[in-house]
Design brief:
Distance between the termini of chain A: 50 Å
CATH architecture of chain A: 3-Layer(aba) Sandwich
Structural class of chain A: mainly alpha
Helix content of chain B: over 70%
Oligomer: heterodimer
Largest interface: A-B, 25 and 32 residues
Structural class of chain B: mainly alpha
Shape of chain A: globular
Number of domains of chain A: 1
Strand content of chain B: under 5%
Shape of chain B: globular
Strand order of the largest sheet of chain A: 3-4-5
Order of helices and strands of chain B: HHHHHHHHHHHH
Distance between the termini of chain B: 39 Å
Number of helices of chain B: 12
Number of strands of chain B: 0
Helix content of chain A: 40-55%
Radius of gyration of chain B: 19 Å
């Protein structure tokens, strides 16, 4: 909280609220979650920036994808992401969600997470230190200020693209796919 | 007449401000005990502002109405509580009205949460109602002892008869005061008794399906309930207050001790909590009833 920001608060209370009270959902994928406990506890206190972990996706507006994402985890990630109220921000954490990282040739992990859900910011590293998380959060503040963190709008607009990628990945579904892939497309890739 | 109307508007507003301030102070003190810097003291207010700008999900008409019922019930209770000279509704039966209207607080949340149809909500609500059953027994005995000690059911008269440091806590009735102090963490939902909103076990209990503005209303209701529980203790046992400042100072002291208890103790299980609540506070409150009969 800065005294210079009072005018901004009066002008756009909603935007400033989203900025200074980011609630992250408790969701761990892979090994990156090991960097979160030092970040939120006494050593690097994330609560001074208004970042706290909450237990349910209904209350959260920040989603951190920490570490590699297997196909099975992706289903849970999508379900959690779609339950969060808008506006919501996602940050991919570590090098595995960016390009596969050390699991680049694994048959069971996702290489590019932004094909399946929209990502607002990336924090590179294996693992990124807690300082890097704070830099990521401040970058996210800048993006919210400029109105550039629009992942949830992209998800709504390009829902066909995301849904098709998800259904293609999951293969055999217990329900008929919403956007079925033609056989021609299937052969090509 | 104009002063009366101003009191009606001013009193819930002040209660909300104090409740939100206490929530912020709570997070700050806990952070300092953890040797952290902690959030800014107005952080709960920022959270509420954010929540009202988020999209919320409703699960039906009762989901909205139950929450509003709980909030309205807490505002009505605030109007009956004398607050450092301010008391918008000075009825002669104030304590009984408070006693019955206070039931709306957990029942409204239960009604609203039940519509959410989440298994965590049902567990949370059953825990909340059982905990209510636990602390209502000593609470009723405490109120009975104070009512029979002062021979009145008006809370304003009880406050008035405690003037000039004739506090109930220093009278023969001090056992009831101790009993109230022992059940206060359970009424506030703080740490030895935070089994209702256990985020690690049942993902924050009844609040699990609330999001956006519904969670904002839930937070406002929580801040009101913190104000009500502590203000009632100050009114009944610490002699109210000559003006708002002294009243606030007394509330702050009680709340500070509660936060210290919160940050030290671990969470009890439900049956442990019930065994505790029906044993020591109930014994003390019962002794208080006997003393009030013997003395008068």
């Amino acid at each position: 909280m800065d005294r210079k920001n009072i005018l901004k608060w009066l002008k756009e209370p909603g935007k400033m609220g989203h900025k200074y009270s980011l609630w992250a959902v408790y969701f761990c994928t892979g090994c990156g979650i090991i960097e979160i406990p030092p970040t939120i506890t006494s050593q690097w206190d994330a609560e001074r920036f208004g970042v706290i972990p909450v237990a349910t996706p209904r209350q959260a507006n920040l989603f951190m994808i920490t570490g590699y994402v297997s196909v099975k985890t992706l289903k849970a990630i999508i379900r959690t992401y779609e339950q969060m109220p808008e506006p919501k921000y996602t940050v991919a954490f570590g090098s595995c969600p960016i390009n596969g990282g050390m699991y680049w040739d694994s048959y069971n992990t996702i290489k590019h997470i932004d094909k399946y859900i929209p990502i607002d910011g990336w924090i590179a590293g294996c693992m990124p230190r807690p300082e890097a998380i704070f830099i990521g959060v401040t970058k996210l503040w800048m993006m919210i200020d400029k109105g550039a963190a629009t992942g949830y709008i992209r998800y709504r607009k390009n829902y066909k693209f995301y849904r098709r990628n998800q259904e293609k990945l999951f293969g055999k579904l217990p329900w008929p796919p919403l956007y079925p892939v033609d056989e021609k497309e299937n052969k090509n890739g | 007449m104009v002063i009366k109307i101003i009191e009606f508007i001013f009193s819930p507003f002040l209660a909300f401000i104090i409740g939100v301030f206490f929530l912020g102070l709570f997070r700050k003190i806990v952070a300092r005990i953890h040797q952290r810097y902690g959030p800014p003291i107005i952080q709960p207010l920022l959270d509420v502002i954010k929540l009202f700008h988020q999209k919320g999900f409703s699960h039906g008409a009762l989901f909205d109405l139950g929450l509003i019922l709980s909030l309205a019930g807490s505002i009505v209770v605030v109007l009956f509580i004398p607050f450092g000279g301010i008391c918008p509704l000075k009825s002669s039966g104030g304590l009984l009205v408070i006693l019955y209207t206070m039931l709306f607080l957990p029942l409204g949340i239960a009604l609203s949460g039940g519509e959410g149809a989440n298994p965590n909500i049902s567990i949370g609500i059953s825990r909340k109602l059982i905990l209510c059953l636990g602390y209502e027994v000593p609470f009723l005995l405490i109120l009975l002892s104070t009512m029979s000690f002062y021979r009145t059911i008006s809370i304003v008269d009880i406050v008035n008869s405690q003037k000039n440091f004739h506090w109930t806590l220093f009278s023969p009735l001090f056992l009831s005061g101790i009993a109230y102090f022992m059940i206060l963490p359970a009424m506030l939902g703080m740490r030895p008794f935070d089994i209702v909103s256990a985020p690690q076990e049942i993902s924050s209990g009844p609040a699990v399906e609330y999001g956006g503005k519904y969670l904002g209303l839930f937070h406002i209701q929580h801040s009101f309930s913190i104000f009500i529980m502590i203000a009632l203790f100050v009114d009944l046992f610490l002699g109210g207050g000559e003006n708002i400042f002294y009243f606030f100072l007394k509330m702050l002291t009680i709340f500070f001790i509660m936060v210290l208890i919160h940050s030290v103790f671990p969470r009890l299980r439900l049956e442990q909590a019930l065994r505790y609540l029906w044993k020591w506070p109930t014994i003390f409150a019962f002794l208080g009833v006997i003393i009030s009969k013997v003395v008068r």
